[in-house]
Amino acid sequence: MDKNTSNIIIQTHNLSIGYQSKKNITCVAENINLSLPKGKLVCVLGKNGIGKSTLLRTLTKVQPKLSGDIILNRRKLETITNTELSKVMSLVLTERIPESNLTVYELITLGRQPYTNWIGNLTNEDNKYIELAIEQTKIKDIIHKKHYELSDGQLQKVMIARALAQNTEIITLDEPTAHLDIHNKIEIFNLLKTLTQKLHKTILISTHEIHLALQLAGELWLMNETEIISGKTEDLIANKSVAKLFSSDLVTFNLKLKQFIIKNDYFRADYD
Amino acid sequence: MNKTKSYKFHFLLLTILSVFFVLLNLSLGSVDIPFKSIIQTLTGNDTAKESWQYIILQYRLPKALTAILVGSGLSICGLLMQTLFRNPLAGPFVLGISSGASLGVAILVLGISAFSGGLVGLTSSNIGLALAASIGALLVLSAVMLAAKKIKNTMSILIIGLMFGSFTAAIISVLAYFSSAEQLQQYVFWTFGSLGNLGWNEILILSVLYLIDMGLLLTIIKPLNSLLLGENYAVSLGVNLKRTRNITLVITGLLTGVITAFSGPIAFIGLAVPHLTKLLIKTSDHKILVPAVIIIGAIVMLISDTIAQLPNSQYTLPINAVTSLFGAPIVIWLLVRKRKISY
């Protein structure tokens, strides 16, 4: 854990996450103690169904925590109103947005809602941030299109632009590169990396792109059945935490290539 | 740089059209009144015949005003429902809200008087009808909203709305079975819908409620726009979802209730006008949609009423039949041509 707390923007203490209904509690993960450092790209890695999305949803107040504490900028998350939170944290979710006639430009301007007046009129300052968001995500040529006319890759960039327009310290993205081809995946990851460097955004994403995460993320949160290990990417590679995450009979982690590869002897074993 | 389209031309055209249809609506009817006399009456001058002046001021003008209030009110309810439920099929009729209002009126007209003949006076008072219809509408709407809270799937919510509709229809059938012929007739005539039953007092009540609702509507235009991104995004933009939902509930319940009470359960308008508007003005921005839906709703209702009067004859068709008879095919045609609906 980082001892220098002034660099920490979100911290959790003994956090339990999961789902609560009237009759039963389904705990997905417990005893979570994590800190999110300022200005870094942090990737949450883990198998399907391990609770990456639940963790992200809990940290962003989309769903309530079960127990423990989430501290955002030295304040407990539950004491922060939605209006205040909307100026600190923006989201890019996996859910598709409902059908409508929204254009890309209108969609991005909605990101300014926390700052606009009661009817939502844009000021010069609002326009400045909208321009910046369009410029950073390089989507100037598609701002007049309807959102349903976009490809998945374009739409994801637009959703990131909307989050940027919201001008928040933290941007949280849930699997931003799912359904994208390799070219778009790299483009999105690069964009996120650039945003941390140029605009000093703190970006937290959940992803299955281990390959890209290992190359571009400053810090990793590795989720497995029993615990969440966090640390600098190179440290986690060196101490074999990454290697343990997915290793099975099927795959092994290659330190030199920084990626998981299929064990050759796995298939050979069948023929023996 | 102009990035959001300006719809000044559209609004200018719509305003001219609405003025035209108001005048057309005023000049057609069972009695032939020259256009000159209508203008004279409207501007407060004397006309050739006093009876013409009376017809215009006491019958045609209130009816035209009612058409405007009813048309725009129901259309706004439809727009709100469609955005809130994120479903193009939503509307006061589909969600059972109009049926709720009908149930309120049916209980008052068929039920109470069936038990005690002494209360007949209450049933003929329009205030009583308005109250009963509003309560019925709000009750069904609350039930649908409660269900919507538990069930995230919007299709299921619509089915629940339709079920509430059938349920209320069944209760009304039972009530109808046990009521007298006159009561039944009174109720059936009410279901035909009519814009001409309102005097100036009723219009005043309707207008006051309408203005209150429009005031409330102004406060939720911004959250309605963020709801275009879905509920989770809306909350992440600082929207108070509960407040927005409740205000929408109150606006829709009150407007549908009062309108249904005074003019009968008018189908089609609430569902169709938002779609017509979005075909003409391709935006989802509620700052533009709300005024456009208000004007187009008023125009559609004025046209329907003009057709219902069967110009130069003494017959008046039930307005409810006209809106559906002429409106439904138009909407089907438009949608088939466009092949795409959005909300």
Plain-language structure description:
The complex is a heterodimer of chains A (272) and B (343). Chain A starts with 7 loop residues before the first strand and ends with a helix. In chain A, a hairpin with a 2-residue loop joins strand 5 (67-72) and strand 6. The model of chain A has no long low-confidence stretch (mean pLDDT 90). Chain A has 272 residues and is of the alpha/beta class. Chain A contains 10 helices and 13 strands. In chain A, the strands form 3 sheets. In chain A, strands 7-8-9-4-10-11 form a 6-stranded mixed beta sheet, with helices on both faces. In chain A, strands 1, 2, 3, 5 and 6 form a 5-stranded antiparallel beta sheet that branches. Chain B is mostly helical and 343 residues long. Chain B has one domain (16-338): ABC transporter involved in vitamin B12 uptake, BtuC, CATH 1.10.3470.10. Chain B has helices at 8-27, 35-42, 50-84, 97-115, 120-124, 126-150, 154-177, 181-192, 200-219, 221-226, 231-236, 241-263, 269-280, 286-308, 319-338. The chains are: A alpha/beta (272), B mainly alpha (343).
